[in-house]
Amino acid sequence: MNSDDAAALARLLRTARLAHLGTLRQGAPLASMTLYLAAPGFDAFYLHVSRLAWHTQDMLADARVALSVAEADDAREDPFTLARVTVRGEVRQLGADDALKRSWLARFPAQAVNFELADFSFWRIAPRDARFVAGFGRIHNLSAAALAAAARA
């Protein structure tokens, strides 16, 4: 991946706030919109979700997930030129983490109310690999190490 595409990937993962989380629900795919926070080195992606949500129930049953992040649609003529990445990995539930909570609230201050609810917890996605489409015909299959290298771009 060239330096321009690596920088575009890093910018996308650091600035986008919404993602679609792919889980397996009773043997079939499910995609849910969620908020996420990327670790500085892209070695982890964090979710703060309710155990009442289907995707959380799915993660408890099967740790394999995908997180898909896309550049916002700006009404350009060809939306296939929008950058997008899907990170595949395994997820695990975390205990209380004050530093992570501070980082989450710095990014999502309106979500403070969720920390008052007992059914919300943090989850960490450890990337296995990723597929980054920097634009039409600019496609990169990335290992977890290559994804981490893009964080330094």
Explain what you see.
The structure is a single chain. It is built from four helices and eight strands, in the order αββββαββαββα. It has helices spanning 3-15, 54-61, 98-107, 144-150, and strands at residues 18-25, 28-35, 37-38, 45-50, 64-70, 84-93, 120-135, 138-143. Strands 1, 2, 3, 4, 5, 6, 7 and 8 form an eight-stranded antiparallel sheet that branches. β1 (18-25) and β2 form a beta hairpin. The model has no long low-confidence stretch (mean pLDDT 96).
Terminal CA distance: 11 Å
Fraction of helical residues: 10-25%
Detail the poorly predicted runs: none
In round numbers, the mean pLDDT is 96
Radius of gyration: 15 Å
Label the structural class. alpha+beta
Q: How much strand? A: 35-45%
SSE order in H/E notation?
HEEEEHEEHEEH
**Mass-distribution shape:** globular
Count of extended strands: 8
Q: Quick summary of this structure?
A:
The protein is of the alpha+beta class. The chain contains 4 helices and 8 strands, in the order αββββαββαββα.
Helix/strand layout:
Layout: H1 3-15, E1 18-25, E2 28-35, E3 37-38, E4 45-50, H2 54-61, E5 64-70, E6 84-93, H3 98-107, E7 120-135, E8 138-143, H4 144-150
Antiparallel strand pairs: 1-2, 1-5, 3-4, 4-7, 5-6, 6-7, 7-8
